[in-house]
Amino acid sequence: MMTHLTAGLAVLVLATGCARTAQLSAAEVAARNADARGGIDAWRKVQTMVWTGHVESDHARAPSMPFELDQKRPNKTRLQLDAPGDRSVRVFNGLRGWKLHPGRGRAEPQPFTPQEVMYAQAGHGLDGPLIDYAAKGNSVALEGLDELEGRKAYHLSVHLAKGATEDVWVDAETFLDVRCDRKSDGPDGAPRRVSVTYGDYRAVAGLRLPFLISTGGGVTPDRMQIERVLLNTPLDDSTFESPAAPHSRHRSRPGIARGTFVPTPSGDEGGLEGQ
Questions:
Q1: Rounded distance between C-alpha atoms, residue 112 and residue 194, angstroms
Q2: What is the pLDDT of residues 134-174, one digit of tens each?
Q3: Residue 178's CATH number
Q4: Contact between residue 94 and residue 77 where contact means Cβ atoms under 8 Å apart
Q5: How many domains does the chain have?
Q6: Residue 13 domain-assigned?
């Protein structure tokens, strides 16, 4: 009798716990995600962000390459990868984009294809698809509660203002983003699903940022390991124009080392370099 009662209570407790986990709405999950990442107000104060680190890829000319990613609201990006004897650049100014790959025999910048422009325009910006999603014109819907690598995660579908739909998974305990799937055109022009996973979250000036971003899935995904983060350093708009244009990158960024956050793996905020 006691065995049946104990088993019954265990099932009841488990069912109650599952119900408690699953009862959140999409809006509530998004709100908790924003709080877990530092809060909407804190993110709204961030106008520029610079990441530096290295990229590991089996598909590149070098297994590990230093990179710098410059980002500016609302949706401007500049990514530079440095390999031995080669430097590639991808720039998007919010409307147009350019790519420069001298190592591939392309000495002059090439414009983004229409498909690349559409993909860049649907980019997440500085803070991702969930933070301030309504203000961005996005909408969210709860698809269910999934299990990813042994952990429960809320599965949200995010309908972007530009018309695309993405799938986002938010950890049911930490409420941090763990994965995002979106559609892209492959090398042959056929649509494909791109999966991005996030990990190694650390604190930077009160925000929570993933310092490890993996793309592609499979046995050997491409890995972006962030080492330093720069917040709200002035970035001139010329930074986001064609690499061939005559401009001085970061010309309004004197003393770039000042304000560079070096987070600690424990999640505590690191000190400021250059002070």
A1: 19
A2: 998 999 999 999 999 999 999 999 999 888 899 999 999 99
A3: 2.50.20.10
A4: no
A5: 1
A6: no
